[in-house]
């Protein structure tokens, strides 16, 4: 009985974390678009810097003040070889997302972001020679086709915003691959 209750609490906390992540993600994207559109703010890098400062302050509060999470000590070599590249790619992803929001609608940016599974598979195949089953390749066809159809028919298409979102998608894929390597110890040797 107690095990079942613990399992239910664990599932509830997981679902709550997913809903919270989704809500914060949607809120940040819509607020950023509002800043660019309604306030006519022309500096996406400044918005990104404010985002990073708020994230750093929030993390410091959670770790150092509230002590909700422990401070994890990382070996300096690991910091530069494994964590810095992932952090750098994450920053590039945020900046490109904000740049794209400056020029294209949120809906179109999110549609381009849905291209991430395809770019992740292609990057892993091209760069790291990872094998994928034919069913995975086949499942990417409707994703790529839908994005192409959406891009061709987008009324407020802007090439600069589209390219920023597309490169942001590549950055997201790279970040995902780097995170997988951190979690599973995958080596990038051919």
UniProtKB/TrEMBL annotation:
Keywords: Membrane, Sugar transport, Transmembrane, Transmembrane helix, Transport. GO terms for biological process: nucleotide-sugar transmembrane transport. It is found in: Membrane. InterPro entries: EmrE-like, Sugar_P_trans_dom, TPT_transporter. It comes from the Eukaryota. One of its GO terms (cellular component) is membrane. This is Sugar phosphate transporter domain-containing protein.
